[in-house]
Amino acid sequence: MDDGVNIAARVGSRKNITLWLGAVLVGVPLLAGLVSFVWTPYALSDMVGGRLETPGWAHWAGTDRLGRDILTQLMVGARVALVVGCGAVAIGAAIGVMCGILAAFATRFADDALAAFFDILIAFPTLLIAMLVVATRQEASLGTAILALGIGLAPIVGRITRILTKQVLGQDYIVAARVCGTSWPAIVLWHIVPNILPFLGVNLALQFGLAVMAEASLSYLGLGAPPPNASWGQMLQEAQGTVYSAPWGAVLPGLALFALVIGVNLLADGLRDRVSSQRGEA
Amino acid sequence: MHFRIDHAQARGRTLLMAMTSVSALTLGAVCAMAQDVDPQAVVNIGSLYEPQNLDNTAGAGQGINEAFNGNVYEGLFVLTDAGDVEPKLVDSYTTSDDGLVYTFTLKDGVTFHSGDPMTAADVKTSIERVTAEGSASSRKSTLDVIDKIEAPDDKTVVITLKTASISLPYNLSYVWIVNDAAEDISASEDGTGPYMLQEWRRGSALAMVPFDAYWGEAPSNGGVMFQYFTDATAQNNALLTGAVDIITSVQTPDALARFADNPDFTISEGASTTKELLAYNDRVAPFDNVEVRAALSKAVDKQKLLRAVWGDYGTLIGSFVPPTDPWFVDLTDVNAYDPDAAKQMLAEAGYPDGFTFTLDTPNYDPHPIVAQFLQNELAKVGVEVKINIITANEWYTKIYKAHDFQATLQEHVNHRDIVFYGNPDFYWGYNNPEVTRLITQSEAAPDTDTQTDMLRDANEMIAQDAASMWLYLYPQIVVSTSNVTGYPLNGLNSQFFAADITKAD
């Protein structure tokens, strides 16, 4: 008996560690990004230091080739990553959830067509879709990047929403609600959305990580928000030429990117475990 | 060496730096002499430019010029590493008074690697290979001026021109003299140079051995091997591990950190011909206004930019003309850095609150970082720069072809390319009739001194007009193991003469 309790406790604490580690890894850039709105060590594009200064008291993360403070860029980069991640997920969720629920409710034929359409779009790399969207706009900007990535994420969200909705639709309580004369919009609002939200939420967290990575890739290619505007991907691109003489310029934004994406994944994992264990208890 | 000192004097502000590299070189030479030079040693040269084939009229790329110019093939003239045009396979030549007829007398005793003697007929076919309809030579258009080529006897070539062209000897320096009996030279060769092709291993190396019957001085090494790399890191590693002895050009200062302060390696800085510039579209407002262009030039601290991009390397020249062009003159004082004056000039030109423009920026290094630097500097005088990142392909169609831009960044690599400013239809649209006249008429100059004077005047006018913003001249950096000396420093037109390279034990 004792053993069983111990194992349960250990599993529980491991879940907690995952959750907490995720929260910390996401929390630090979140905090840095928020702080950057009111305070940064230096102004973003001021060439305040020498060329490629090593990290020290004046510049905690060193300076880049133009003598700009890297810590400042990292903080503003965190803001950009979070804004793009949240924005893209919001757009992806808005389009995806709507289309997914519609597909689940549609006639057999329309449902199959939409499902096939989602699959085709998913087969396209998100980055490629984003590049196409950027190409149709005249100039690259933060808004374009968010829109592009949001559109790229929509089919993934749509497919999951459709499957989750279908599962819920098969439940007895939906039939009961129908029998009671509840309208479809009310069913969607009161029964479907609350029931798919926990699973969808975990998935959206994963999509957030995907969006952050894709934004870095776009910026690396020069298709992200144009300067003056720090982005981790752009920092990586600029530090590429000096990776031997000033490795911190490439390592730090790379680490930040890694930490945020892995943090979001851990957080999603921890949340999923918590959600499923609660379901299990209920 | 003589040239290097001239160059150092011209550089003024960077004199100290250049002197250091001169003394480093001298030191290198002394060290090598102290050791025993091995005349049989094979010199391994690392390069990033593998030729597509071995024929420079068949789209082989710059790599074939690097490997073969002056090594396997020679021209009637040679462009020396110092930028002078000297006779090579020509013994003497005369020009008619109207400048339309050149009569060349060829050197005696020159034979091709196959054993055939070089004759006037070979020279005629060689030039016609470049001007032929199917020729893909990048230099084809410069020889359009030729009306006809005659070979009255074995030793004499007569070239008649449509209009006078003082640059003909220069333009002939990149025409290889090939044996007219050679059938296909895309995978083999038959030239007159000091080296013969021994083996070409596609994708990896080109080996050359000394040609025993060479008419001139024999090479001071036992052969050269060009080893090709697809990326700079692999190339640098090859030098570090001793797989190659020299790398012909270093593209980023970062790579140098691994060789600097290491007595096993010598870093030499020569003068390149690659110029980084901000080209305005001089046709559109506000860049059609000289005052505005001059003001922007004064607003940018180019020394600081050069340091940011290249560390301690590179040069400021203040114009489009590099020190290896005969008409070079140091113009760094024209529209020199003075942000206060810049602000005032902008106000006088009618832009007291500045203006906004879009800078089309190629997406590869160093352009994006240069663009951000300019954005910063120009913001200080109230001019807002919008950076629009584009690909090399977009640059070609949007800017070079369609002239659809306000300003752009680009690097121009050629030697003697000031002529672009004499063409009002060029992408940047600079149009000063006096400059166009000088540049056009300089071709018909009676002698090279007059040509040089005319082009120097033109260059000064272009600089006064601030036609573009000339940011800096790239360095040409060669890194070698310290037991190797005698290699060319400037590498003009991608040439890399190997015959004087020596390698000590």
The CATH C-level class name of the largest domain in chain B: Alpha Beta
The CATH H-level superfamily of chain A is MetI-like
Determine the most extensive contact between two protein chains: A-B, 24 and 25 residues
- What string gives the helices and strands of chain A in order? HHHHHHHHH
What distance lies between the first and last C-alpha atoms of chain B, to the nearest angstrom? 24 Å
Count of strand segments of chain A: 0
CATH topology of chain A: MetI-like fold
**CATH-scheme architecture of chain A:** Orthogonal Bundle
Strand arrangement, major sheet of chain B: 8-9-10-1-11-16-12-15-13-14
Major sheet description of chain B: 10 strands, mixed
Multimerization status: heterodimer
CATH topology of the largest domain in chain B: Dipeptide-binding Protein, domain 3
The overall pLDDT of chain B, averaged over residues, is 88
- Radius of gyration computed on alpha carbons of chain B: 24 Å
Structure notes:
The complex is a heterodimer of chains A (282) and B (505). With 282 residues, chain A is mainly α. Chain A has a single domain, classed as Orthogonal Bundle (MetI-like fold), CATH 1.10.3720.10. Chain A is built from nine helices and no strands. In chain A, helix 7 (184-220) runs parallel beside helix 8 (232-239). The longest helix of chain A is centred in the N-terminal third of the chain and has 37 residues, at 2-38. Chain A is elongated. The model of chain A has no long low-confidence stretch (mean pLDDT 85). By secondary structure, chain B is an alpha+beta fold. Chain B folds into three domains: 6-70 and 193-270 and 476-503, Periplasmic binding protein-like II (D-Maltodextrin-Binding Protein, domain 2); 77-172, Dipeptide-binding Protein, domain 1; 275-473, Dipeptide-binding Protein, Domain 3 (Dipeptide-binding Protein, domain 3). Helices cover 29% and strands 22% of the residues of chain B. Chain B is built from 14 helices and 18 strands. Chain B has helices spanning 2-11, 15-34, 62-68, 120-131, 168-172, 232-240, 253-256, 290-299, 302-310, 339-348, 367-379, 392-401, 433-442, 448-464; strands at residues 43-47, 77-79, 85-87, 90-95, 101-106, 146-153, 156-161, 195-201, 205-210, 224-228, 246-247, 265-280, 356-362, 384-390, 407-412, 469-481, 484-485, 502-503. In chain B, the strands form four sheets. Chain B has a ten-stranded mixed beta sheet with strand order 8-9-10-1-11-16-12-15-13-14, sandwiched between helices. A four-stranded antiparallel beta sheet of chain B has the order 4-5-7-6, with helices on one face. A two-stranded antiparallel sheet of chain B has the order 2-3. In chain B, helix 11 links the parallel strand 13 (356-362) and strand 14 (384-390). In chain B, helix 1 runs antiparallel to helix 2, helix 8 (290-299) runs antiparallel to helix 10 and helix 13 (433-442) runs antiparallel to helix 14. The two termini of chain B are 24 Å apart. Chain A binds chain B through residues 45-47, 51, 65-67, 139-140, 221-223, 226-228, 237-238, 240-246, and chain B through 252-255, 257-258, 304, 307-309, 311, 363, 365-366, 368-369, 371-373, 375-376, 386-389.
